Amino acid sequence: IMLTGSDDRVWRTWGFPEGNILMTGEGHTDWLSGCCFRPSGMQLVTSSGDSTVRIWDLSRHGCILTLRGHSRAVHGCSWHSCGDFVASASMDGTGKIWDLHSERCRCTLRGHKESVNSIEFLPFSSTVLTSSADKTLSLWDARTVSRL
User: Fold this and answer.
1) What is the number of structural domains in the chain?
2) What is the C-alpha separation between 13 and 46, in angstroms, rounded?
3) Which of 133, 89, 126, 80 is CA-nearest to residue 110?
4) Which percentage of the chain shows pLDDT scores above 90?
5) Does the global pTM surpass 0.85?
6) Per-residue pLDDT at 148 exceeds 80
7) How far apart are CA 142 and CA 147, in angstroms?
8) Residues 6+ positions from 98 with CB-CB distance below 8 Å
9) Within 10 A of 84 (CB to CB), how many other CB atoms are there?
10) What is the DSSP string of the chain?
């Protein structure tokens, strides 16, 4: 199964090798910039030009949570390997770590001078990698919200 997002505001899961559409999701009000499966595979996260991050439950065929807090478009998103946290990267120059149990932003990563274009958790750790339009990469400790 492959997951895609598009400027048509829709995510799709595709079956292979046939290439047939298995499921779609609508709800964002602007282009999709990122999407990825939760490590368990039962949920996915999407990021969008509408400045939101959404959590989707595949068994319920819909959005179960909309995370708001970025002031500009969100460029990317990723899951922590434990599945309890999501990270997002935004044109507002920040990255955010979202706690899915409390449904709130756990911390905001500030320090880049321009748009944060991507964000990834290093596997099985609290370390987060961000890349920015300011031509820098940063490693962060999500527990202390400090650069490494």
Assistant:
1) 1
2) 13
3) 89
4) 89
5) yes
6) no
7) 9
8) 53, 67, 85, 86, 87, 88, 104, 105, 106
9) 13
10) -EEEE-TTSEEEEEETTTTEEEEEEE--SS-EEEEEE-TTSSEEEEEETTSEEEEEETTTTEEEEEEE--SS-EEEEEE-TTSSEEEEEETTSEEEEEETTTTEEEEEEE--SS-EEEEEEPTTSSEEEEEETTS-EEEEETTTTEE-
Residue 125 makes CB contacts below 8 A (sequence gap 6+) with none
Percent of the chain residues past pLDDT 70, beyond the cut: 99
Assign residue 109 the CATH number of its domain: 2.130.10.10
Supply the range of the domain harboring residue 7.
Answer: 2-147
Query: What confidence score (pLDDT) does residue 147 get?
Result: 81
Kindly state the tokens that stand for 79: 């899951």
